[in-house]
Design a protein that fits this description.
The structure holds 2 protein chains of 2 kinds.
Chain A (H helix, E strand, L loop, with lengths): L4 H32 L3 H7 L11 H8 L2 H33 L6 H13 L4 H11 L7 H4 L6 H12 L3 H9 L4 H12 L1 H17 L2 H6 L8 H9 L22 H33 L4
Helix pairs in contact in A: 1-14, 3-14, 4-8, 4-11, 9-10, 11-14, 13-14
Chain B lengths: L1 H9 L1 H23 L6 E2 L5 H4 L1 E2 L3 H8 L2 H33 L3 H12 L6 H12 L5 H8 L12 H28 L3 H9 L4 H26 L6 H8 L6 H4 L2 H10 L4 H29 L7
Antiparallel strand pairs in B: 1-2
The chains are: A mainly alpha, B mainly alpha.
Amino acid sequence: MKTERSTQVFNVAGYLILTLISLLCLLPFLLIISGSFTAETEILADGFKLIPNDFTLLAYKAVFSEPGQILKAYQVTILITLCGTLVGLFLTSMTGYVLSRKDFLYRNQLSFFIYFTTLFSGGLIPWYILIVRYLDLKDSYLSLVLPALVGAWNIILMKNFIKSIPESIVESAKIDGAGDFTIYRKLILPLSTPGLATIGLFMALAYWNDWFSANLFITSGDKYPLQFLLYKILASAAVLKTNIAGNLSADMKPPAETLKMAAAVVVTGPIIFLYPFVQRFFVKGLTIGAIKG
Amino acid sequence: MRRLVAELVHNRVMFLMIAPTLIFFSVFAYLPMVGIYYAFTNFSFEGGLFGSEFIGWQNFRFLVESGSLWSLTKNTVLYNLAFILLGNLLQLVCAIFLAEIPGKLFKKTTQSVMFLPYFISFVLVGAFVFNLFNSENGVINTLLQQLGLPGYDFYMHTSPWKYIIVFFSIWKGLGYGTIIYLAAIMSIGDEYYEAAKIDGANIFQRIRSITIPMLVPTFVLLILLSLGGILKGQFDLFYQIIGNNGMLFESTDIIDTYVYRSLAVNFDIGMGTAAGLYQSFFGLALVLTVNYIIRKTREDYALF
């Protein structure tokens, strides 16, 4: 079948526009990567560009010459992401399940108690003072995990997801004498794996990318999570410890600007590698609960 | 009361299951509300919650009279309007193209690439901005130099930052929104398009008379929902791009960055809490209004 002329015009426009937008989405990443492979002297003379004249691994050598700092930050981030996501997911799904049970008398009132927190809050400052002054969590790993442990939206999403599980399953388990927690653990959890996977990934992403809690609460450098370490390196506030200056010939500059770029790549790399594998879960989750939260 | 006790006993396991979450929200969401009181005090760290001097509405009066409240509100609202309107339009356009053009691999690839920025942290966005706009060796200045043009010190001018901020906000949310609109397009029945094809409608006519009218409800709904949050600023975005660069505040300071600076830079607890309370209070009023409007028109989509 011959394609109509208008369709051809439309398709060409579509390909052009989408290609252009995709390139714009990728360009900043490419610039950072190419910057990290450029020689420091070239940056200082010419500035950053898309394709460097000289390709060098020096910045990466510098980053990995004393990898302790970055490895420690990786450890912290992985730890808080794992703990926060697992505990958060447990609480979120349990709450979602209880609120979805029709024989739980106060479900509407308690749902509102949780939902109201998205409508009104005391604001950043009272929240900060509570955590630092009254809960005494300053400079503790708990301050990176606890304040973001459960979110109202995720609970609502989880509740709606569990509601789609046929009620008869719960009913028949109850007749067989199963307790409420057993029903949750043995029936609800396995049946809601797609929902758990999606919400869990969103939680993990939020913990992984969080720099703000560390900015507010963490004071000692060895407790920095990845993103905050990167932030400090970019702001030149924390100089990444390297052990490379001694090995350089006199006309070479130790990497500074390129070091920032290499640090950005090292910090973000794993997410980009994981991205193709987890992307579809996000897409699925978005289309499940996208509009009606 | 009897009913409550009976329910507590009867459903004790479920109450135990939900208890940690309720405690969490009591501590981290409701307890800080007590601290709203700071807004009415001349806060001192020695005095703490109730030992600080009570000054009534003075903090609010200062915020209004100094003009900060007006300019913060204006910036917050205008930025959000730009994010919402431009963002949604672009997402809609991308979704329509993705739904109609052939080429599975191309569509899959572009969709993945467009969704990628959603996954990275705002710190990395900060790195991008540094890499692009840095006045000594940023990419843009390198380019200007190569073209024989004079360099441009972005950090000495306020005007370009509006566009930079809007660009990166849309850049980061494009893939996410496109997926939502694409899902909405996919749920439109094929029979409409088939019928239109038989009647000889070309692709532009089909999009204008089927896709767009069918998407209007989703579009309006998403816009309305976002309008409810128009006083909430994207702190991460503004802070990672602008930071504490006072030169640029005039056109880039939003309520959230102001509150943050009151806490972390100026130690002006009373004033910051007052600005935060103003934001929370009017935010609530806005959501209630928006919800009222949605309830009047499309009840099933109301938030509550």
